[in-house]
Design brief:
elongated, 30 helices, mainly alpha, about 75% helix
Length: about 500
């Protein structure tokens, strides 16, 4: 990702400081040095023109070396920049320990110091230096902004807001302050905050058309507000000004994808990857783009690359596991779901999907354990309750199934379809009465789920013909958003081999 280190702000405005920095009082040259200069001059009088030119060049070189050794804020900034260019913030900070006494209170030196401290995470020290600057120059916009960034890192939202609003009161078109106020609104994550942020970002780019961070924020806020037209306008503006701004291509890919322009979306995300091939999110989006074009194998490769870049984040495993499932690479899919649980134990769908796959493989106990965890996270799920009951029955543990259903059926309305279906799994009596109740349901999804469990009931009790009738009916409903739909496909296709081949 392109990011501008905050300490660079100090360097960008150093030109303003160097014209007015304080310098130590100049002292008259010692008499000895004057005599030495006179002697040098007399020697030069007897040299040829070529020899004089050589001497002149040597003196110029020596003079430059001496000047580079003399401490000035300009030289100091140059040395600081060299340290930062090789990525050694610690070494750069050490330079401040050797600042001559007469420059200890220099404005530009302290501004650079505070900027580098806050960017390197030393908030306490940055706050101390920044506060000293603020006490000396309470109405200096740059100092106010610097301290607002320190407050941001310290989590002091109240102080930060006060400082930024003071800047806006003094300078209503201060683009940087407007962007920061917008950032704060974006973090709150509500639609009203996005609208407020969008307004601040818009003001920032009107004040400074080259404010790329403002254009980026304006595009993001517009995107979240589903204002694709202004979002696209903002990201195209960024590319116009900086053709190598990869994040703009990433968002343009999202917008194109939402519009159904799949090839265009793929082209944009490929450009983002070309610019920043080691950026995790781009590979995640690229996998999504490939999946939309039907290239599941390509999608798996993209998500595998994302996992290589960030193996500790669970999202790529989620996408890859689902694709592997579709490719019927179930064993690999199981490994991914287990990894998801390891990385994010709160991701409930991993337990659901792993439970399905364990059921498919005939691992009834493992399947039940997965659905038990899923039920703890979603106690109202009828699907999880029925899968747990069914797993107990496949384990030949009717007592376990009975105890489980008893604990969940007590408080249900005895005339509800949910009560009837659980009761069926409890005592196996009168499935036709359950069928009547289920067909009265208005919700297509709920009806589809219960028809599946009626089929599963007949399947477990050996009535293949009745089970298949229900499975075919569920298949015709075309409801892939429920996990039972996939299990239904497996059962119809004979992929749950043990369930079909061996009946108790």
């Amino acid at each position: 990702m392109k990011k501008l280190g905050f300490f660079i702000v100090g360097f960008l405005i150093l030109g303003l400081f160097f014209s007015c920095v304080s310098k130590p009082e100049e002292k008259p040259e010692p008499l000895v040095e004057i005599e030495e200069k006179e002697q040098e001059k007399s020697k030069e009088d007897v040299l040829t023109e070529d020899e004089k030119q050589v001497v002149k060049e040597e003196k110029t070189s020596e003079q430059k070396e001496k000047e580079s050794e003399v401490f000035t804020p300009v030289n100091f900034a140059g040395n600081l920049q060299k340290k930062l260019e090789v990525g050694k913030a610690e070494d750069a900070l050490l330079l401040f320990e050797n600042v001559p006494e007469e420059y200890k209170e220099d404005y530009s030196i302290n501004y650079m110091h505070a900027s580098l401290l806050v960017s390197s995470g030393d908030v306490k020290k940055a706050s101390e230096v920044g506060q000293k600057l603020l006490e000396k120059e309470p109405n200096n916009v740059d100092v106010l902004f610097l301290n607002s960034m320190v407050a941001k890192r310290a989590g002091d939202t109240k102080k930060r807001a006060e400082l930024l609003n003071k800047i806006i009161a003094m300078d209503p078109n201060n683009s940087d302050a407007l962007v920061e106020l917008a950032h704060d609104q974006m973090k709150r994550g509500r639609q009203s905050n996005y609208r407020s942020a969008k307004n601040y970002y818009e003001r920032s780019v009107k004040a400074d058309d080259n404010q790329l961070e403002g254009w980026l924020g304006y595009g993001q806020a517009s995107y979240y507000l589903r204002d694709d037209q202004n979002a696209e306008k903002a990201f195209l503006k960024i590319i116009e000004k900086d053709p190598e701004y990869s994040l703009a291509y990433s968002y343009l890919s999202k917008i194109s994808s939402d519009k159904g322009k799949i090839r265009e979306a793929r082209s944009y995300i490929e450009k983002a990857i070309e610019l920043e091939p080691e950026y995790y999110d781009y590979w995640v989006d690229y996998g999504q783009s490939l999946r939309l074009t039907g290239d599941l194998n390509g999608a798996v490769k993209a998500w595998t690359k994302a996992i290589e870049l960030n193996p500790q984040y669970f999202l790529s495993y989620v996408y890859r596991a689902s694709a592997l499932d579709e490719l019927k690479k179930y064993d690999e899919s199981i490994l991914d779901y287990r990894k998801i649980i390891q990385l994010n134990a709160n991701y409930n769908y991993a337990y659901e999907n792993l439970g399905m796959l364990e059921w498919k493989n005939g691992n009834w106990t493992k399947a039940r354990e997965c659905f038990e965890i899923a039920l703890k996270k979603d106690p109202t799920s009828l699907s999880y309750k029925l899968m747990i009951a069914a797993s107990y029955l496949r384990e030949k543990n009717r007592e376990g199934s009975k105890k489980f259903i008893d604990s969940h059926i007590r408080n249900l309305n005895k005339s509800s379809a949910e009560y009837y279906i659980l009761r069926l799994y409890l005592d196996g009596i009168n499935p036709s009465a359950v069928d009547v109740r289920v067909r009265k349901l208005e919700s297509v999804v709920t009806k589809g789920k219960m028809l599946f469990y009626l089929g599963l009931f007949y399947d477990m009790y050996g009535n293949d013909e009745m089970a298949k009738r229900y499975y075919i009916e569920v298949q015709a409903m075309q409801a892939p958003m429920m996990f039972e739909y996939q299990m239904n496909e497996w059962l119809l296709n004979g992929e749950c081999a043990r369930l079909y081949e061996k009946k108790e």
